[in-house]
Amino acid sequence: MIQRIQTIFLALIAVAMGIVLGFPIWEKVGSNNESAQLTALQLTHTQGVTTFVTPVWYLALLGVIVIGVSIYTIFQYRNRVLQMGMCAINAILLTAMMGVVLYSTLYKGKEFFNPTDQGNFTTGFYALVAALIFNMFANRFIRRDEKLVQESNRLR
Length: 156
Hints:
alpha+beta; 4 helices; five-stranded antiparallel sheet
């Protein structure tokens, strides 16, 4: 049913991914008016008045796909096996998104200035971590419901 606890976790995944899309994920501030910032759409490096922009639109695309899969999964409450599969797809997409974020921040971020400073993860990154955790909990409760249904069918 739609009022199960996993529905709340799936909705929280969608909210967390909305936060990832709307807030910065990472930023690094250096001396001499240098700064770098990663959002879901672009990696921006500013040196004084010059700004270099690297598009990372694929992060936003992955985020929108995760939101769509989460919302679709909410309404597939009659088919728990499909819900588990959708949660697995979400886990893969979220892991890919985390990998791209970490690559962009830890490797590309070193190139900008002061290689010893890693920068700071901001609200968007922590929302991405929260989405991974919510997906894990949603999958756990879907599996628990499926196990309960299988045990009740066995007793008949």
